[in-house]
Design goal:
Length: 655
């Protein structure tokens, strides 16, 4: 929302900074000079006894000489209330008596409607609170007393009671002149189907303890109700989706929790109303709960706005663990640096309320202190109760974990998760044979020594070492060697265009490294039937052809020099395509292996790398450094290549 010019200046002029700050501090009157607006107090942002926090009312700024916090009235509200900029503006505007500007007439009308609905909700909260104190609320008061909730706690959370009457709330609100459609639209009452004789709305909440649900600004937006009847169809009932209330974007107790988190308390996410109340009463004021649904993406983002690492407190039963696992799947793609989750699992069969009543707040604090990072629960989910006594089962575990890690978008977090998974995997499977060796860290003046590493770490070291630019390994030289193969292959087809049809089906799908080579391959396929083939190719790809035939390894290649030897050319094309196909497979295997190393690696990683290398060698015995001599030593060609040629497997299938 954009604010009109001058709005913020007017707001700051109407508000005294010392008045705003004075709600949070105790002024040092000996050091302060009220007449000049020069005020001093202990800083509200850090613990101290001396008055090092200075407010200059005339300039409208504050500064702490201890922690160096500084700003104006808006930044003070943002920091102390843990709210966003626009929310801080709204808070100060209400205090100054300035109406917030509406975006447009329709927005103003909608805002008025929401204001009306909020007013209806507040009247409903008052009605239910009065009912709890009435004779009809005796059973509800007894239940609350058994839960050991103090009167102060009841008032703090504004608990109420809905009598088991069909139209108790409806009649009470309409008697105050509130329109029936507002009562229905607020979600407080239900309008019967038009087909019935009685179409008068009836109360949604009946025979229930009422929990008001407020938004971050403290406005009542819905209600939750706990049934007094143990045989009720739903133990807990929340209000429906309305203009005020979106279950998936709201959290119970968000306002007080945000303020407490802003003062340094960890954000605790419990499962329900009573858990939040019990935790808050025990001193864990930064506690929230989802509202009758599994945690949603919007709720996660809302939690992260309050605290970078919320602690999910789960009941120690199967349902609690299932809830945690759902949160993990939801959170993985949303993780960012410094933004995560921890999970505190309570003793089996206990919720926070049970634990606090049985052992006190200290026991709950121990549970929160022992909260586990999310990666631990991810590992537990995939390994607990399972046996990995075969390579197939281990491979299945690797596949599942790899799929989970690929959902993490942040590459740094994904890498750290992979490292932790590898560590846990090593702990689970233990050593397999003698540990490979790798070089120890270099220290000036000392010779390098070999140190023992696990197979995964050794594979990573070997692969990274093989990636040095000056190495002639498969990884380092694969692109250069592929370019040589491709150049000789394409030049051979230019000189022997009759072979294009024979190898068309393979040529269409083979991966080429260079964009120039790809364009030339397309031109070859496009003009293969042209009577003036060479002229068409020259016209279409003249620059590419000039570069191609200027290369020494192309000029010296036997199938290019011997334009009359079609048999030699066919063998060389078959060999070249086979090698490129093998290299494609090797490249994919290496890419998978590199991905494994950034995530997790299985015990067969080094075997897979060696197989990738062997695949290239099996594709043809001719040394890649002697690609210019393709065809000179025909006896060296592998038997399977000859079989390919004899069987003409490259022929494009008809129909």
């Amino acid at each position: 929302m954009s604010l009109p010019p001058g709005f913020l200046d007017e707001l700051r002029n109407r508000i005294s900074l010392s008045q705003v700050v004075g709600r949070k501090v105790v002024w040092d009157l000996r050091k302060s000079n009220q007449g000049k607006g020069d005020m001093w107090a202990p800083c509200p942002f850090h613990q101290e006894k001396s008055a090092s926090f200075h407010v200059d009312d005339r300039k409208g700024f504050y500064y702490c000489f201890g922690c160096h916090a500084k700003g104006d009235a808006l930044s003070f509200i943002k920091e102390t209330e843990n709210v966003g900029f626009m929310e801080a503006v709204e808070i100060l505007a209400r205090e100054a008596g300035m109406p917030m500007p509406a975006r447009d007439p329709m927005a103003a009308q909608k805002a008025d409607r929401r204001t009306q609905l909020v007013a209806v909700m507040e009247e409903a909260v008052k009605y239910f609170r009065l009912q709890l104190r009435s004779g009809a609320g005796a059973a509800a008061r007894d239940y609350i007393a058994k839960r050991r909730l103090s009167v102060e706690g009841q008032d703090r959370f504004e608990l109420g009671f809905a009598p088991d009457a069909r139209q108790g709330l409806f009649q009470a609100l309409t008697a105050k002149g509130i329109a029936p459609d507002l009562i229905v639209d607020a979600g407080l009452c239900i309008k019967p189907d038009e087909g019935g004789r009685d179409i008068t709305p009836y109360d949604r909440f009946r025979g229930r303890i009422i929990f008001p649900i407020r938004d971050a600004r403290g406005r009542a937006i819905s209600l939750g109700g706990r049934a007094m009847d143990p045989n009720a169809r739903a133990k807990y009932l929340n209000g429906p989706e309305t203009e005020l209330f979106d279950k998936g974007r709201s959290l119970y107790n968000i306002g007080p929790a945000r303020e407490a988190a802003g003062k340094g308390q960890p954000l605790v996410v419990a499962e329900g109303y009573m858990d939040v109340i019990a935790l808050s009463e025990a001193g864990f004021h930064a506690t929230v709960a989802p509202l009758g649904t599994a945690v949603t993406e919007d709720q996660l983002r809302l939690m992260w706005r309050i605290h970078p690492e919320p602690v999910i407190a789960l009941d120690g039963d199967a349902a609690g663990i299932r809830a945690a696992l759902r949160v993990i799947d939801l959170a993985l793609p949303l993780l960012e640096a410094g933004q995560g989750l921890r999970f505190a699992v309570l003793p089996t069969g206990q919720d926070p309320d049970d634990l606090i009543k049985a052992q006190g707040a200290a026991a709950m604090q121990r549970v929160l202190d022992a909260a586990q990072p999310m990666v631990n629960l991810l590992w537990q989910r995939e390994t607990e109760g399972r046996d990995f006594d075969s390579p197939e089962r281990k491979a299945a575990l690797d596949k599942t974990l790899r799929a989970a890690l690929t959902r993490i978008k942040d590459p740094s977090i994904r890498g750290h998760y992979g490292e932790e998974i590898k560590r846990l995997r090593w702990e689970l499977f233990g050593q397999r044979g003698r540990k490979p060796t790798a070089r120890a860290p270099f220290r000036p003046g000392q010779p390098r020594q070999a140190v023992a590493l696990g197979p995964v770490a050794n594979a990573k070291a070997s692969l990274l070492a093989s990636s040095r630019p000056d190495d002639t390994s498969l990884l380092a030289s694969s692109r250069e060697e592929a370019l040589v193969l491709e150049a000789v292959l394409l030049a051979t087809l230019v000189v022997h265009p009759a072979l294009i049809h024979h190898f068309e089906s393979v040529l269409e799908v083979v991966d080429l490294t260079s964009p120039d080579h790809d364009r030339l391959r397309s031109a070859l396929l496009r003009h293969a039937d042209a009577p003036d083939f060479r002229a068409k190719i020259d016209e279409d790809q003249r620059a590419v052809l000039e570069t191609l035939f200027a290369q020494s390894h192309v000029q010296s290649a036997p199938p290019v020099r011997n334009a009359q030897d079609a048999e030699l050319a066919a063998m060389c094309v078959a060999e070249g395509l086979a090698k490129l196909d093998a290299r494609r497979g090797a490249r994919r295997e290496i890419e998978d292996a590199v991905e494994d190393l950034s995530g997790l690696a299985d015990e067969g990683l080094t075997w897979r790398l060696s197989q990738a290398s062997d695949a290239v060698n099996r594709a043809g015995k001719t040394n890649l450094e002697d690609a210019s001599d393709m065809g000179e030593d025909r006896a060296a060609l592998s038997q399977h290549l000859q079989n390919l040629i004899d069987g003409q497997v490259w022929l494009k299938k008809k129909g």
